[in-house]
Amino acid sequence: MHIIVLIKQVPEMDKVLFDSEKGRVDRKSAGVEVNPFDLNALETAVGIKEKTGAEISVLSMGPSRAEEALKEAVARGADNAYLLNDQQFAGADTIATSASLAAAVETIGDYDLIIAGEMSVDGDTAQVGPQTAEFLNINHAAYVSELISVEEDEIEIKTSLWQANYSKTFTYPLLITVTKDINTPRLPSFKDKMKARKAEVKLLTFEDIKNKVKIDEVGFKGSPTWVDNIVVPEEISRKTKVFTEEEKESAYKKIKELLIEKNLMED
Amino acid sequence: MAAKNELLILAEYSQDKIHPVVFELLNKGKELADKADLTLSVLILLPEKVDLSELIFHGAEKVYYIEDSAFAYPDEFLYKENILSFLKEHQVDIILTGASNFGRSLAPRIAAGLKTGLTADCTALDIDEEGNLVQIRPAFSEKILAHIKSDTRPQMATIRYQEFKKGSTDKTRQGEIIACQLKRNENPNLKQIKKLSNKEINIAEADIIVAGGSGVKNTEDFKLLKKLADLLGGQLAASRDVVDAGLIAKEYQVGYSGQRVKPKLYFAFGISGAPQHLAGMKEADTIIAVNTDPSAPIFNLADYGIVADLYQIIPEFIEMLKK
Ligand SMILES: Cc1cc2nc3c(=O)[nH]c(=O)nc-3n(C[C@H](O)[C@H](O)[C@H](O)COP(=O)(O)OP(=O)(O)OC[C@H]3O[C@@H](n4cnc5c(N)ncnc54)[C@H](O)[C@@H]3O)c2cc1C
Ligand SMILES: Cc1cc2nc3c(=O)[nH]c(=O)nc-3n(C[C@H](O)[C@H](O)[C@H](O)COP(=O)(O)OP(=O)(O)OC[C@H]3O[C@@H](n4cnc5c(N)ncnc54)[C@H](O)[C@@H]3O)c2cc1C
């Protein structure tokens, strides 16, 4: 079985700063890391590999420094790493990103399962998984929280849709996007990290995938959506009335008043 | 005169009812359709005959439906095949749908099928001077609001539930209900689909939420919070750390990777106030936090804070309420 995991490198979300005057994300203010949900995607693949001996390829589209994210993926158990990197891909929205990733997947070759994260913590759209599946014309299941069974010819997953939990059994190929609930990613060992530093990351440029996607379908030109404006809202901070432990009785009184005021409790 | 183009709302029909976000979208959609001179219409895929007049009473001028038993299950592939086929026959300028899990899973496939732009998870919408749809959405883990526009038609967006007000029912409104052709009702690569369980708890709609975080030590202790929630007619909820630790089920999780809630009153017991937790509850009317650590970030957002041990506060507060 061949599994392809989609990995995005994102800014460290707890550190990144925003310029509220210019309406800009100050990307230099923070380092980068693997999108947290993609670690769950990778762990899912590694879990299957441990049971069935599957081969794992990781694929990322991004700037050259995204190589680091792919090397981390190798340290965590991936076998092959591909970086889709070219000036032509710059400025991509989710449609152009997905069209490029789908073309890269087809270039990499035969695959059974593609695993992506539920969403990225920067773009936040959760669209790249389903759109990549559409460009590949295969089924997808989003919000997968459990693999119920993984067989050679079919896979059963659990997903939450329509305010309920459903199980779905698909034949391959299939793309899934996974939630954080599916597993807890393990940390790579020091030895694996050292080994991964030397891992080869195969570079794919537009030239390599041009038989599968047109130039006007990638990057800025292939992107129908654009960010017109960014507003950095004032941090919501309310006038907090803090009660100490000694003042707790007045706090109870205050809360009871609130409940009555909001019609949440009878007088 | 040529017929007007349409503003189409894709309606989710699940658990034997039309998802309530549809009525909110009709209300907002009416305003946008007037501004952009579009016909307000709805497309709904249904497993059985359903009275759809409520959609007309809420402002839809046309309601299209495709009926087939296959639509008793959330199979994105079948839905998108039928919707793409429907769209070939219609001049649609704007498509809006709810940003439920199903909406966020289905809409991207339709947008990719049409090679058109899609804006995710919008919280506000407008029409600019040129008649384009301005789509406003949180990004960067809810830290910023991006204004997005699309160059292609239809312009598509998924919209969060409870961002727009539902309008009133007007039984004098007239409109057409139109049956449409089924394109396909088989997905050859989906071998089985079945419902495992309904989500019993719906914290998204609660007026009062009593949430516990890592300050709550074990599953048993959540009963204490539950007791308070029951007494207030509220709903129990939790931070992710206690969900991850297995103390309480995922359905209770509030936050960026859980549920977004907007109750009138939100109690945070032993929750530090990480940005990912705040993302899910910062729009509560009133927030009350109880935490032993006076420097916990939750105290910056809360309206009322008590610096104390939740194990002492909750029983005392329950006693006082009972009086
Ligand atoms: C503020 C802001 C708002 C935006 N809003 C929109 C919008 O509404 N609509 C739109 O079309 N575009 C939007 N974009 C552009 C969008 O963020 C980019 O196209 C981005 O590269 C991919 O989308 P995402 O980050 O939302 O990924 P998601 O769809 O949230 O990511 C889901 C999964 O897809 C995989 N994945 C995503 N990107 C890559 C990649 N580059 N390489 C490998 N795997 C990947 C990962 O497994 C990831 O977990 C926005 C960008 C910004 C800065
Ligand atoms: C991609 C991503 C998504 C995430 N999504 C979510 C999400 O959806 N929801 C979410 O909640 N988190 C989410 N998180 C995790 C988040 O960053 C925090 O780790 C989490 O919210 C912390 O939970 P907590 O406040 O319960 O625990 P802690 O941060 O450990 O806080 C516990 C608090 O309890 C107080 N306390 C201890 N004992 C007592 C006592 N006896 N009485 C009163 N107070 C006491 C402590 O002072 C402390 O402030 C996400 C993180 C990432 C990276």
Automatic annotation (TrEMBL), chain A:
**Which residue numbers delimit the Electron transfer flavoprotein alpha/beta-subunit N-terminal domain?**
22-213
Family matches, as Pfam families: ETF (PF01012)
Report the superkingdom from the record.
Bacteria
GO MF term (any one): electron transfer activity
Signal sequence, renumbered to the chain:
none
Q: Which InterPro entries match?
A: ETF_a/b_N (IPR014730), ETF_b (IPR012255), ETF_beta_N (IPR033948), Rossmann-like_a/b/a_fold (IPR014729)
The molecule here is called Electron transfer flavoprotein small subunit
- Name the species this protein comes from: Halanaerobium hydrogeniformans
TrEMBL record, chain B:
- What would be an example GO MF term here? electron transfer activity
Q: Which GO terms describe its biological process?
A: fatty acid beta-oxidation using acyl-CoA dehydrogenase
The residues that the entry says bind FAD are 239-240, 253-257, 270-277, 291
Family from the record:
Belongs to the ETF alpha-subunit/FixB family.
Name the species this protein comes from. Answer: Halanaerobium hydrogeniformans
The protein, known as? Electron transfer flavoprotein alpha subunit
Higher taxonomy: Bacteria, Bacillati, Bacillota, Clostridia, Halanaerobiales
Q: Which cofactor does it need?
A: FAD
UniProt keyword annotation of Flavoprotein present: yes
Residues forming the Electron transfer flavoprotein alpha/beta-subunit N-terminal domain are 7-205
Taxonomy, superkingdom: Bacteria
